[in-house]
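Final report, closing paragraph on structural work. Over the funding period we assembled a curated collection of sequence-structure pairs, and we close with a single example.
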Amino acid sequence: MELYSAMINKKQAGEKQFAILFDPDKVDHKKILKTARLAQKSGVDWFFVGGSLLIQNSLDSCIKVLKENCDIPVVLFPGNTLQMSSKADAILFLSLISGRNAEMLIGRHVIAAPYLKLSSLEVISTGYMLIESGKPTTVSYMSNSAPIPADKNDIAACTAIAGEMLGMKLIFMDAGSGATNPVPEPMIEMVAKSVNIPLVIGGGINTPEKAAGACAAGADIIVIGNAIEKDHELIPKISASIKR
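Its predicted structure, as stored:
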């Protein structure tokens, strides 16, 4: 519970948190190293590592570079049950509570659970919610589930409440990788007011202004991946906007 306790303590202290998402298929050793060093200087809180598909068998090597070059905790953000590594510090045990695909709600978790129990990974149960972003995303396609419409704040809030009541430790609202639009701020605000556990927001956040807006609406942890892959210089700018 060490990393989750840190997330909770920062939330209770009113400290907004910044997570950088690495898709091991999209970054090489040089990019990982550059990002890690800049993230350390910029006060990044977490590294999330994972993707919808991993076709280059580079998960372990990505984590290894991160662990050897900075002390920011590494948390697995798995796209499937194969994306597990003992080199990480923790894993987001994602249950896709916005969908109705039983495999993503509990099926694959049954397969992964005994391996995780034997591992040293801190397991953080996470209610994962896909939010409509203006275009189909890899996550919605791979999960065979429809996202929550971007204008249905009440559905998002009730889904998050149910996740918390089911014992989830985090709520993760995601517009998806490369989303056209981020999760709308009114939806973030309504969900944030409806639950007490940390609220994570990702997808479509590609400017300091969008990051700051999500935080102001009630997000506790901002996750950014694609935008940073394209421009490393966004790291200190976004960090400053989140932690101001």
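Residues 2-243 form a domain with the TIM Barrel fold (CATH 3.20.20.390). The first helix runs from residue 2 to 12. We thank the funder for supporting this effort.
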